[in-house]
Amino acid sequence: MFFDSWGDLFRILIIGILAYGGLVLLLRATGKRTLSKMNAFDFIVTVALGSILATVLLSSEVSLSEGLFAFALLCLLQYAVAYASVRSGRFQSLVKADPSLVFFRGRFLHAMLKKERVTEEEVYAAVRAAGLADLDAVAAVVLETDGSISVVPAANEPEGEPAKASTLRHVQGRQEARAEAGLSA
User: Fold this and answer.
1) Number of helices (H) and strands (E), helices first, in the chain?
2) What tens digit of pLDDT does each residue of 67-114 get?
3) Assign residue 17 a region: left if phi > 0, alpha if psi is -120 to 50, beta otherwise?
4) Residues 38-54 pLDDT 10s
5) Residue 159 has what pLDDT?
6) Quick count: other Cβ atoms within 10 Å of Cβ 161?
7) Which residues face 103 on adjacent strands?
């Protein structure tokens, strides 16, 4: 239970060094995007790479070559999905969700909070984490595609908010929130 053999530990040492080295080389070859968390698919790839590494290290039933092949396959799939997403809006909409506006100019957007399963308390926590103590200092709170929550301070919001420059341009619920606030979309 506490110790089986020195051979097992030696195997983990050698396989760990080789698998880690192989993973680092693959990540360098496929670029920064492979470990990003820009959307749910990216996050899944990151978790799966960790799972494969753990399996290769701890299971003597999985060979180093199988683990390296699994790493390469996931990196290739992630690269292909990112490549296709950049080149096709239709494909991008299949694999990536749009960010969602959950708070805008002093108002919680309850329909969007409910749809995204986010509580007001989670919005308050994000506002505090952004270093703001008052909701009047907040222009918008956005649930991003990776599940993180972004807070846009009111001081950063340009007067009149030109649509081309707005960081809220592709956010779900923006038009409804602006209409509710009496602003043009």
Assistant:
1) 7, 4
2) 999 999 999 998 898 899 899 989 988 888 889 999 999 999 999 999
3) alpha
4) 777 788 888 999 999 99
5) 59
6) 15
7) 108, 141
Angle, in degrees to the nearest 10, between helices 64-87 and 40-58: 170
109: its two tokens: 């957007």
Instruction: Map tokens 């923006």 to a residue.
Output: 174
- Based on the number of CB atoms within 10 Å of its own CB, is 101 exposed (0-12), middle (13-18) or buried (19 or more)? buried
152 φ/ψ angles, rounded to the nearest 5 degrees: -105, 110
Torsion (CA) 72, 77, 82, 88 in degrees, nearest 10: 150
Tell me the pLDDT band of 184, cut-offs 50, 70 and 90: low
Whole-prediction pTM value? 0.69
Cβ-based neighbours of 102, under 8 Å, separated by 6 or more: 108, 109, 112, 113, 116, 118, 123, 141, 142, 143, 149, 173
